[in-house]
């Protein structure tokens, strides 16, 4: 049940992921059940110690850390994409559940949405 | 033979006119849905999709004017068209009250579009039986 917001875009270079996060927070703010799946290049959102000074961008780490506060139920990361992008327990933010099979996850939700 | 179920739709457009086909595809869908007896509850413009609500688009005369096409369709069918305020302000789409608030030189929101928050999208999700997304590349 609930909505699965899918973030498949990297945190920098394109705005769609940020807009997807805003959608997730908005659902949560209206007490609608929502979880987020990071997949493809989107798993880079979950990297710790993002240093964005040289690209003159705000780090997305702070935005993402607000997810549990807003009431986002769960954050999932595609296990295969994590391997592809070199993400593991040592460099990933806490509280992320690895998803071996994203299609199962999609089936468990009544809505799936991308920001773009 | 079982009758086809009737659906109510919220349409979300995130692709801009003239850089993606999303507004065109969404309009074709909306017309077909209504012709088949379904309803369109509302249209929500998000991200680059808000450019569809600009009154300042001036495409060449041999190209379709997608903002006007959408405006006419929404008005004729009494369907609310909502542009996300956060997306709109970032991209230079403002109504008269936002123009005053931010002391801008002009407003450019095409009727009957209105500017409102993501809550409109949330409400659409809850109220409609289907929510469909039209992204860049769609």
Which short descriptors sum up this protein?
A: 116 residues; alpha/beta; Hypothetical Protein Ychn, Chain: A; five-stranded parallel sheet; 5 helices; globular; B: 138 residues
Written account of the structure:
The complex is a heterodimer of chains A (116) and B (138). Chain A is of the alpha/beta class and 116 residues long. Chain A has five helices and five strands, in the order βαβααβαβαβ. In chain A, strands 4-3-2-1-5 form a five-stranded parallel sheet. In chain A, α4 links the parallel β3 and β4. Chain B is an alpha/beta fold and 138 residues long. Helices cover 34% and strands 18% of the residues of chain B. Chain B is built from five helices and five strands. The radius of gyration of chain B is 15 Å and the shape is globular. The termini of chain B are far apart. At the A-B interface, α1 of A face α5 of B.
Would you state the CATH class of chain B? Alpha Beta
Approximately how much helix is present in the residues of chain A?
25-40%
Report how far apart the termini of chain A are.
22 Å
Give the total of beta strands of chain A.
5
> What is the CATH homologous superfamily assignment of chain B?
DsrEFH-like
- Rg of chain A, Cα atoms, Å: 13 Å
Question: What oligomerization state is this entry in?
Answer: heterodimer
- Spans of chain B of at least 5 consecutive residues whose pLDDT stays below 50 are none
Distance between the termini of chain B: 33 Å
CATH superfamily of chain A: DsrEFH-like
